[in-house]
Amino acid sequence: MLKSWFSHIRTPFIANAPMLGSTDAGLAAAVSKAGGFGFIGGGFDFSAESSQISALEAQLTRAREILNIRDDRQRLPIGVGFVTFKPSGFQHHVLPIIQKHRISAVWLAFPTSGPDHLPLITCIREARAKANWDVRVFVQIGDLKHAREAIEQGADVIVAQGSDAGGHQWAHGASVVSLVPEVRDLVRAAGKDGEVAVVAAGGIVDGRGLAAALALGW
What we know:
By secondary structure, this protein is of the alpha/beta class. It has eight helices and six strands. It has helices at about 1-5, 25-35, 50-65, 90-100, 115-130, 145-155, 175-190, 205-215; strands spanning about 40-45, 75-85, 105-110, 135-140, 155-160, 195-200. The protein has a six-stranded parallel beta sheet.
């Protein structure tokens, strides 16, 4: 499914985490050129005066230059990740920029509450339909409650991040070993096989971890 959505990737799907300050256009472009999926860290400040938004636009322009994509109508084979504990302003100040650059994915993580993601996902999906913009919504979760919410809210990809990710997760999180199979079973039970993909995250740093993650996803 991921391969059909993102034709440039090689199986298996490997992406870098969109960490603000660490993942820029150079890294994201390099990952995508190597057959993975590159993400830029887009930030958390969505206000009109946000320096993060202007920096993001500069990074997306730079990514097009690195990848030699001159046609503005062509999809940019990278994504942008956002920390969403202050979602106000996303639709008015961020959405026009990421739509303009026709990024391939939006990664949402760390809302203050689960319902906070619904208006963001809704406005992205509406823009996708109106502008013929082939973009997918990734939602990072750390437990089954939030995975269920993300599925119901219209996420295309559930990023199941285990507590293996430096303990950087919800109070009631679980390790990637137990979380990923549970999320896959949840997707099946919801009748979303073939519609919603699951990506494992957290503590996967070498070939052994990659092999384990692939086994967990069956």
